[in-house]
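Homework help board

Subject: predicted structure for assignment chain

Our instructor gave us this sequence and asked us to write out the predicted structure in token form, then describe one feature. I got the tokens but I'm not sure how to describe them. Can anyone check?
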Amino acid sequence: PSICEPLDKQWYQRRVRAVEVGVDKPSKTVIVPNGAGQPAPSWVAFDRQVLRFSAYFQEAVHEKREETYRIRRCTILYYLEDDSIQVNEARQENSGIPQGTLIRRHRIPKPAPNDDSCYTVDAFNVGNSVTLYGRVFTITDCDAFSRNYLTKTGTKVPEPAGGEPVDPYFEHRKKQADAMQPHRPYEKCDTLKQFLDNDRKVLRFYCVWDHSSEMFGDVRELILHYFLADDTMEIREVIKANSGRDAAPKFLHRSKVPKEVGALHKPGEITQRTVLNVFGP
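My token output:
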């Protein structure tokens, strides 16, 4: 058709059939259910359709006392459009081994003596073992799309049995990480917001200290200042004229005052904090 004419659906279907018959024939390795196929080449019919399989392989570890083998979990991606395969491994923290894309996407040949042909979708199913470049991958599970596709092609997909084996060294490292204690057992409290919101804001209370029951005791007037910026307080005494008392600057210096004061622990006792003897027994 010319540029001005719209491309209708019938013209597109005729064009696809012409390309399929004359130039690009569909791949013979792709299995399509009878009556469910489309009159289009494989790169059109199976565009962006990928089978996803969960698998693992066992890797031997030499000259190491902590572990003799390692279980490496990975994901096998099978692209239906060109029968290419890609293998990805999930990254683990502080594993010390290169992880990520183990095998880049391409068509993988079968092991000898069948190395003249490549893998097809027939070799991938739950419970099967696939050898890719010397490594034996055991398939343990697949996603819903892969299970539905294999079922429609006439392949019976078993249910995942037991899952993947446990890596003993990974479990040992996980227990060690859970048992580790931080170097600073006391949690640091960030008081910057409290300081910025309540700076120069002070509460004032008028109070008295009655200790008239003691010898030479009397009632003394005090002023208590509570600083909202850092939860500290100070106490000043109201000294009247000719009272006979020395004019002390403060009755209590600005500091944090505990609600309950208990007996001090002696050095060597189990406490929440460490007691150090400095210049004394």
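Reply (TA_rk): Your tokens look well-formed. For the description, you could write something like this. Confidence is low (pLDDT under 50) at residues 1-30. That's the kind of observation they're looking for.
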